[in-house]
Amino acid sequence: MTATDLGLPAIGGLDLVPSTDEQQKAKDYKSDQEVRWCPGCGDYVVLNTIQSFLPNLGLKRENIVFVSGIGCSSRFPYYMNTYGMHSIHGRAPAIATGLATTRPDLSVWVVTGDGDALSIGGNHLIHALRRNVNITILLFNNRIYGLTKGQYSPTSDQGMVTKSTPMGSVDTPFNPVSLALGAEATFVGRALDSDRKGLNEVLGAAAQHRGSALVEIYQNCPIFNDGAFEVLKDSDEAARRIIPLTAGEPIRFGPEGEYGVTRSGWGGLEVGKVSEIGEDNLVVHDPTITDTSYAFALSRLGDQNLTNTPTGIFRQVQRPTYDDRAREQVEQARHAKEPDLQALLRGKDTWTVE
What we know:
By secondary structure, the protein is an alpha/beta fold. It has a domain at about 25-230 and about 320-345: 3-Layer(aba) Sandwich (Rossmann fold). It has 11 helices and 11 strands. It has helices spanning about 45-55, 90-100, 115-120, 120-130, 175-180, 195-210, 235-240, 275, 295-300, 320-335, 340-345, and strands at about 65-70, 85, 105-115, 135-140, 185-190, 215-220, 240-245, 250-255, 260-265, 270-275, 310-315. The protein has an 8-stranded mixed beta sheet with strand order 2-1-3-4-6-5-11-7, with helices on both faces. A 3-stranded antiparallel beta sheet has the order 8-9-10. Strand 9 (about 260-265) and strand 10 form a beta hairpin. Helix 1 packs across helix 6, helix 2 (about 90-100) crosses helix 10 and helix 3 crosses helix 4. The radius of gyration is 22 Å and the shape is globular. The protein starts with about 40 loop residues before the first helix and ends in a 9-residue tail after the last helix. Residues about 1-15 have low confidence and may be disordered.
């Protein structure tokens, strides 16, 4: 059962209560708490971007809630003049699932980091995505544990020397986008903290999506992993490395658009020069393809060296949400015949212990 079934209007992809107040502004979403991140932290840009575009959703602030786990990014709820909860390590998706299921009038957001989401919280994350819970997950990826002072994380480069890997990490790092697609997330995107326009576009689409939405945000930690994404912020390097994904458009990039993406053997994708590939052989981006293999192949174009880095929306499909189905079952049970408790207790699945 959706909020519309309960008499609440739907806004975009969200069944929410619209604001009847005057047009809200970014300042209306700023709390009175001092923002306490390190100077130069990418979290500032993400916070300002969120505060700027939330008024465009036309929602009451009391119908928006941010849930976080543990980490630098998890201070986010303190700085938002909405409802929020600073929960425990890795469990934000579980708490958000409960909120989304019981409160269809809420826009539920999860703010998490690469350590919080992909290490202790990995199990909660993949199942929230698999179930297609109606929540929006912002995964701040700085490839390091920042709050606990610089240990390697599940997305740190192999060979990276940190306080917990003095001889270099031997782990193979996660690709968060690939992980989300493998878990069947219905919306998956990626953006850079320094790309305000691209971040706005992806976050806006994620907010309007009904179902599980994950947005990976490349975010700089100036203290413990400074410059992790610097090559994507230099204009020349960015043009050669960033592959912008635009629905309905051939996938090409480069300073002169000289590179493009084409299909390769075994259902994969590869990058080549347009002059060699041929314009007619370029892949036209379609995030609405139901099969995840296409979006997954896109996510594998890049590597930890950021040689090729797709950004934008990888997947955007519709399927029934967990919370809608759960509410439907509750409603069915409510109208069902009065259950016979004794018949249930003495049914076929009971036994006697002598």
